[in-house]
């Protein structure tokens, strides 16, 4: 007879929400996802409400769904949630033909994408490292611009 040892189950620290076959280009959704990766839940909601892109609405729904999963499954507070992983994958492409003049046809390709949002509860993590360090800086301020007063610069126009 086989004996099966039960492992001690740890409390889950991450939850996810998955949106499949969203009718949108993966590049357009990735533009929004790059802005919210590594941010807190409340900050993400503010960013998504104010951004002018069409991709914000399905991503907003996925983020709120992941937060609802976290509050239901892990009984965690929304203030402790951080987006630890957000990715966009290319989905299937719907191909149709539109009839045109003189018996020709024009192909229409509608692309879809799959979006995955993984949220982490930072209150359950003992070794919490600052998640903002996951975000790569988009620019570094190496050079500061020096503005000069162009009217009193001592140039050609100051001479009479």
Automatic annotation (TrEMBL):
Output the Gene Ontology cellular-component terms: large ribosomal subunit; plastid
In which domain of life is the source organism classified?
Answer: Eukaryota
An example GO BP is: translation
SUPFAM superfamilies attached here? Answer: Ribosomal protein L22
Q: Name one Pfam family in it.
A: Ribosomal_L22
Q: Name its cellular compartments.
A: Plastid
Q: What keywords are assigned to this protein? A: Plastid, Ribonucleoprotein, Ribosomal protein, RNA-binding, rRNA-binding
For this protein, what is any one GO molecular function term? structural constituent of ribosome
InterPro entries given in the database record: Ribosomal_uL22, Ribosomal_uL22_bac/chlpt-type, Ribosomal_uL22_bac/org-type, Ribosomal_uL22_CS, Ribosomal_uL22_sf
Primary location group: plastid
Q: Which NCBIfam families match?
A: rplV_bact
Q: How does it assemble?
A: Part of the 50S ribosomal subunit.
Please give the family membership noted in the entry: Belongs to the universal ribosomal protein uL22 family.
Function text: This protein binds specifically to 23S rRNA. The globular domain of the protein is located near the polypeptide exit tunnel on the outside of the subunit, while an extended beta-hairpin is found that lines the wall of the exit tunnel in the center of the 70S ribosome.
- Kindly provide the name given to this protein in its UniProt entry: Large ribosomal subunit protein uL22c
Q: Which organism is it from?
A: Secamone afzelii
Q: Which gene encodes it?
A: rpl22
